[in-house]
Design a protein that fits this description.
The protein is about 30% helix and about 20% strand. It has helices at about 10-15, 50-60, 75, 80-85, 95-105, and strands at about 25, 40, 65-70, 90-95, 110, 120-125.
């Protein structure tokens, strides 16, 4: 058994399969999940695990070269907006509808238990060298 890092076997395995440029959608419990990408559903109950916990956990395991969020997050969910701004200095914004379209191209979807609106981000994997 792993001693540290992400212990969920489905998520740990999915992360190990990602390559440069692959997309990972981290989404709240209400985001429509597209057909196609592998889905790891971590939602246990409303708010558990939180969007912040999942994003921060993933960032400890992944190299991320870019991130995209819905522009609506800035008004509708200031806490999520602040978290994203703190972690991604060059965060790209698109409409929520466009984020849903872009999410169809993700290789992995990680669903959190977050119950606040627009707590979603599309990460683009980088490389560690």
């Amino acid at each position: 058994m792993k001693k540290a890092g992400i212990l969920n076997r489905h998520l740990s395995g999915a992360l190990a399969e990602l390559g440069h440029g692959d997309g990972v959608l981290v989404c709240d419990a209400g985001m429509p999940i597209p057909d196609g990408p592998r889905v790891v559903d971590l939602a246990f109950r409303a708010g558990v695990p939180s969007f912040a916990e999942v994003v921060e956990g993933l960032l400890s395991e992944l190299v991320v070269e870019g991130a995209t969020a819905a522009s609506e997050v800035r008004e509708a969910n200031p806490a999520a907006a602040a978290l994203l701004k703190r972690h991604f200095t060059r965060l790209a914004y698109v409409s929520h509808e466009e984020l849903k379209v872009l999410s169809a191209g993700a290789r992995l979807v990680v669903r959190t238990g977050e119950a606040r609106p627009y707590a979603n981000v599309l990460l683009r994997c980088g490389v560690f060298f």
